[in-house]
Design a protein that fits this description.
The complex is a heterodimer of chains A (600) and B (376). By secondary structure, chain A is α/β, with parallel strands linked by helices. Chain A has three domains: 95 residues, Ubiquitin-like (UB roll), CATH 3.10.20; 151 residues, Rossmann fold (3-Layer(aba) Sandwich), CATH 3.40.50; 291 residues, no CATH class. In chain A, a hairpin with a 2-residue loop joins strand 12 and strand 13. In chain A, helix 12 packs parallel to helix 15. Chain A is globular. Among the domains of chain B are: 70 residues, OB fold (Dihydrolipoamide Acetyltransferase, E2P) (Beta Barrel), CATH 2.40.50; 131 residues, no CATH class; 60 residues, SH3 type barrels (Roll), CATH 2.30.30. The longest helix of chain B has 10 residues. In chain B, 44% of the residues are buried. The chains are: A alpha/beta (600), B mainly beta (376). The interface between A and B is large, with 57 and 53 residues.
């Protein structure tokens, strides 16, 4: 039963990950919501425990011990407050889950760049891992598509295709490929595989006939691309969440009890992160990019002008997938971020050794420098993939003038813009656990190449999933905790866009902060760090050909936020070009020194 | 005394081993509890549904989709052979009929009147699962598989490629620190599980494939050599399906690294004994390491060990460990102390550490995450 938000003062939130269940306690202190305690315990979804609620109870029991507030009943369930002034219990319990590999989906659409892409966006936005996208024009022959479908074991399938009132044949053909291929659900053959149809409404009868044979549970929702000019992802996303709860979660051990305990539907972890970022972007009226880099995958989330996108780069990560990062980026690209002499053959073996023993950590300074170099490339590649995916709708008719015929701009421009980006939020081991905050800031700047003014922050304990669900029961509480406890502000980066030449001026700057001031000229390929405390007033005058947001050569005066790092002035120009060889190493060393990345 | 748990790989002279042998989908189990089986005996089999071949019949016949079912020359459910006429158009006044031949053999599964698509289902593909190790069937898992148990000598490697292989154990390197070169591989090694020492060179691997060696087990491999063998850079450690003509198991890691002496001694003690090897490695949730299993002749009881997964055990003073990351990668030693407080590493990070007495007498401090147990 949904509670009146004004009566929610104490919240327990858990995130059941594949290995760890993390619990946080949120309390209303002097009228403001704060995250007051955190605890964790091993996730218990696998044998011999095979009951996710045991891990939840363990984590919340630790929370109880740390906070001194009784939160767990004798039978292990979460204790609720009996009255508004009761000292024990909580008012709401919420949870996210990515245990058991999260939500894995296959999506299908008629045209790869249009309905299939919209379907993929709906699935990713709902927090799924998209195992494959089948489309009529994906260059695979029908029998190859059938073979692929048979190999996959998704939790559910999302089919789209055709605009409402348009052609029905192509999307029915897709269904006719999927039905006889009989993809088997991941959690065994005991339940019917859920199929969500979100395509041309006129094709519904044919689709229903196609999946009428046993083994499927067909759900029909509104078309996610009713016209070429419009996406309508909401109904498909909601149904994905419902099916996730009804089928996938219900088949995972102990989730029926967890669902009963929770005061809001249990969400897939990345879906919850997407929700909180959207809420923040909307609340502050800003554009946000969030990244979570893990051992196997990297998730990138963005909200630009209200449009939300999420991508999962399945094989870009820092342990299980580290070898793939080096293979995809190329060792030369990784090594351009390293200012120390390293033997390439030795490094290649080290990368493979990290891959096969993924839990090891860098012990030496040299190992750390190399690992952070790999992370720059993993993040960069994930962001490139994200920018290519987060686009305007493709296939939309555009009125063109004669002049446009010469520019030949392709449809589906990326929504992601380095210059429009206001806040970049980092999470994931290599970013969160870097020994120095300056290193986190430097990895973000080198990988994402923000332009103009960009705030940098990190979610040090990965609290965003909890807050994503909290936003569904108490939005204000989620916002307050996000601002005060979730984000650790690193500072602000000012990076003029333009081609920088070593030793030539890029911009003049002056900064005033509480207790100090400084001014100077930023030169090409120069980095500068100013410790400004909480906030500072900044005036920058870019040189001709350089832009900090107001246009080439136009000055900007504004307030910026500092943080644990401060204000970083980046005179390397955009796009970033790092010379190779000795010259590159000298430059990278000078940037590391300027940003105080390493001990002397 | 401080304790900590850390993963390790099993190297054991005697362990009660259980091989859980599962079909990819339900099928027929050919053994029953109590049966004695050889490693290569089939314990379960099933038929995978045949491949589907779609034919866009309305395009091929130039007709409307709704006409397709009526133009089939054989009804849905009939057997059809490749190149056999499957459908024919009505033509014009009975003339100029177009005949379409089946593009695959199988059964006509469906003919859609809304898309004009005809599906041909190919013949079922048999799938068989072998026992992997000789021993006794101790459990039958419904219609999904069986569990075979035996006392074995077991060595888990850290990484491997290639699937299951069987053969007698032969020794190519007398010492664990000896590099496995092509010159050590002889024609009588054909069909053998060949035990090397330190790094296996690409020339040795190629020579072994040429000779017909079933599997190589050695201390290390160079990443560049693995890439040359596979023809691509391995991105993630999920292996087992490679078809390179041999199964490889690396016991220590990548680079020039000697096999642990204890592992080498154990394998050497089984010269001529038949072993089963699986190179399949999966380093994700539900980790799976490659294994060398040598069934023992007698059936004295050992500690139980389920096949496939890695083990975890307790770290305490005196526990033998292997350092698994630079700067002491591959060094063997024993735990000398387990400080409670985290320490600042050379990288600047803070982590829980332990002190290791290395075999050469050095005492070094290492993050707890960077050692693995050498499990008995």
């Amino acid at each position: 039963m949904r509670k009146d938000p004004s009566r929610i003062k104490v919240v327990v939130a858990t995130d059941c990950g594949s290995t760890t269940t993390k619990a946080i306690l949120i309390e209303c202190v002097d009228g403001v919501y704060r995250q007051t305690h955190r605890a964790e315990a091993p996730t218990t979804v696998e044998a011999p425990f095979a009951d996710v609620t045991l891990g939840v109870t363990n984590a919340v029991t630790e929370l109880q011990e740390l906070s001194g507030r009784r939160l767990v009943n004798d039978d292990g369930t979460i204790l609720r407050r009996t009255s508004d002034d009761a000292a024990d219990g909580c008012d709401a319990y919420i949870s996210t889950s990515s245990a058991g590999g999260g939500l894995q989906m296959m999506v299908a659409g008629v045209v790869k760049e249009m309905t299939a892409e919209s379907a993929k966006r709906a699935a990713l936005g709902a927090g799924a891992i998209v195992m494959d996208t089948i489309a009529s024009n994906d260059r695979r022959r029908p029998h190859e598509q059938v073979q692929r479908i048979r190999e996959l074991r998704p939790d559910m399938v999302l089919i789209s295709g055709g605009t409402d009132g348009g052609d029905t044949k192509k999307v029915t053909e897709l269904a006719e490929l999927i039905a006889p291929a009989k993809p088997r659900p991941r959690f065994g053959g005991e339940y019917s595989l859920p199929i969500i149809f979100a395509g041309n409404r006129d094709a519904r009868p044919a689709i229903e006939r196609t999946f009428a044979a046993g083994g499927f549970d067909l759900k029909v929702v509104d078309n996610l691309r009713p016209t070429l000019e419009r996406e309508n992802l909401g109904p498909a996303r909601e149904t994905i969440h419902d099916v996730f709860l009804e089928h996938v979660m219900a088949h995972a051990p102990g989730y029926d009890r967890l669902i009963a305990w929770a005061d809001a539907p249990i969400m897939p972890t990345p879906g919850a992160v997407g929700d909180i970022l959207q809420a923040i972007a909307k609340g502050r009226g800003i554009n946000v990019v969030g990244v979570d880099i893990g051992g196997a995958t990297t998730d990138v989330f963005s909200v630009f002008d209200g449009s939300f996108n999420r991508t999962v780069s399945a094989n870009l990560g820092m342990s299980y997938s580290i070898s793939n990062v080096c293979a995809e980026a190329g060792m030369d690209s990784v090594l351009r971020w390293v200012h120390l002499d390293m033997d390439e053959r030795e490094l290649r073996n080290r990368v493979k050794n990290k891959m096969i023993r993924p839990t090891t950590i860098p012990q030496t300074h040299e190992a750390l420098v190399f690992e952070q170099a790999v992370s720059r490339e993993a993040l960069r590649l994930a962001y490139v993939q994200h920018k290519a995916f987060a686009t305007e709708l493709k296939g939309v008719q555009q009125q063109r003038t004669v002049g446009d015929a010469f520019s030949q701009q392709e449809g589906g421009r990326s929504l992601v813009s380095g210059m429009k980006l206001d806040l970049l939020v980092a999470s994931g081991g290599v970013l969160s656990h870097a020994p120095r905050m300056e290193q986190t800031a430097a990895m973000l700047i080198d990988a994402f190449e923000p332009e103009g003014f960009t705030e940098l922050a990190k979610d040090s304990i990965f609290m965003m999933p909890h807050l994503g669900v909290l936003a569904t029961v108490h939005e204000r509480a989620a916002m307050e905790v996000f601002e005060r406890d979730c984000l650790v502000m690193l500072g602000t980066c000012i990076a003029p866009a333009g081609t920088a030449v070593f030793g030539k001026p890029v911009m003049r700057w002056s900064v005033r902060w509480d207790g100090g001031s400084a001014e100077g000229t930023l030169m090409g390929q120069e980095m500068k760090l100013l410790r400004i405390g909480e906030r500072a007033q900044v005036e920058v005058v870019p040189e001709r050909g350089f832009d900090v947001g107001a246009g080439p050569g136009v000055a900007v005066k504004r307030e910026v936020r500092g943080g644990s790092v401060g204000l970083i002035l980046d005179g390397r120009g955009r796009p970033l070009a790092v010379p190779s060889g000795a010259e590159g190493r000298r430059l990278v060393a000078s940037w590391a020194k300027a940003l105080e990345l390493h001990p002397d | 005394m401080a304790k900590a748990y850390t993963p390790g790989l099993t190297v054991s002279a005697r362990v009660r081993y259980r091989a859980r042998r599962l079909l990819p989908l339900t099928g027929r189990i050919t053994v029953k509890v109590g049966d004695r089986v050889a490693a290569t005996d089939v314990v379960a089999q099933t038929d995978l549904e045949g491949d589907i071949t779609p034919m866009k019949m309305s395009n091929l016949l130039s007709c409307a989709p709704r006409d397709v079912p009526g133009l089939l020359l054989k009804p849905v459910g009939s057997a059809i052979a490749k190149d056999e006429p499957i459908a024919q158009s009505k033509g014009i006044f009975g003339m100029m009929k177009v005949t379409v031949k089946a593009t695959a053999s199988g059964t006509i599964e469906s003919a859609s009147d809304s898309t004009g698509m005809v599906m041909i289902r190919g013949a079922a593909q048999p799938v068989q699962v072998r026992a992997f190790t000789s021993g006794r069937v101790v459990d039958v898992l419904g219609s999904e598989g069986a569990v075979v148990e035996n006392d074995v000598a077991l060595v888990q490697g850290i990484f491997g490629i290639g699937g299951e292989a069987y053969g007698p154990i032969a020794i190519a390197c007398a010492r664990p620190g000896e590099r496995l070169e092509a010159s050590s591989i002889r024609s009588e090694h054909a069909g053998c599980i060949l035990i090397g020492g330190a790094r296996m060179t690409i020339e040795a691997i190629r020579r072994a494939i040429e000779v017909g060696v079933a599997a190589i087990v050695s201390g290390g491999i160079d990443d560049a050599d693995l890439k040359a063998l596979l023809g691509h850079d391995l991105g993630v450690a999920i292996t087992g399906s490679e078809k390179v003509g041999i199964t490889l198991v690396v016991t220590e890691g990548f680079g020039d690294i000697a096999m642990a002496a204890r592992t080498h001694d154990l394998l050497t003690s089984h010269i001529g004994h038949t072993a089963s090897v699986n190179g399949a490695t999966q380093i994700r949730a539900g980790v799976m390491r490659p294994e060398i299993v040598v069934p023992l002749a007698d059936e004295a009881t050992g500690d139980a060990h389920a096949g496939g997964g890695a083990t975890a055990g307790e770290l305490s003073i005196g526990t033998p460990v292997r350092v698994i990351r630079d700067p002491w990668f591959g060094a063997l030693g024993t735990v000398a102390s387990l400080p409670e407080q985290p320490a600042v590493l050379g990288s600047g990070s803070k982590a829980r550490v332990l002190e290791v007495s290395l075999a050469d007498g050095q005492r070094v401090t290492v993050p707890r995450a960077n050692v693995e147990l050498i499990a008995e």
